[in-house]
Amino acid sequence: MYKRQGPLSAIALAAFLTACGGGTSNNVPPQSITLSGTAAYGAAYPEGSKLVVYNAQGSEVTNTVLNSSAGTYSLSIPASTPGPLVVTVSANDLPTLVSVTASAKVESSTINVTPITNLIAASLTSTGNPLQLITEIPTIAPQTVSEKKTEVVNYLKTLQTTLNDLSLIHI
Hints:
- The chain is of the alpha+beta class.
- The protein is built from 4 helices and 7 strands; from the N terminus they run αβββββββααα.
- The protein has helices at 7-20, 115-123, 133-136, 142-166; strands at 32-38, 50-54, 60-65, 72-78, 85-91, 94-101, 108-110.
- The strands form 2 sheets. A 4-stranded antiparallel sheet has the order 3-2-5-6. A 3-stranded mixed sheet has the order 4-1-7, with no helix packed on it.
- A hairpin with a 5-residue loop joins β2 and β3.
- α2 (115-123) crosses α4.
- It is globular, with a radius of gyration of 23 Å.
- The N and C termini lie far apart (86 Å).
């Protein structure tokens, strides 16, 4: 004899079929990854600034020129590009800033380039020079990048709290 399963079984079956897509799957990995972000030093890096992306071996993957006065960029890199990735931005009369990410996501990643990302990059190098990261990145594990980012963010949060507390003191 068959026991009546009731509405819960029907709901579970519907959820299973929905999760499966109900048919064939498309497991083809993307051919490229879109990187986008903003390059700013307080104000946006100007239109015409050069942005360069380096892979885990310290080799240049691609470069572009910012075409927005807002400092924004968007570019594609091969999906096979190994991380961590280092991104630099430079312009006449402005400092070259560096950013680093442990890896790019499957289809797109946001990588901003700012003084804070420059601080993270500097903290990963043996000399404290963030540009040195381009040559040292082959020796740095993605996990180390993530840990250093967390460390710097936590430091900045503590600094912000301390400064907020100091503003309460009237001299």
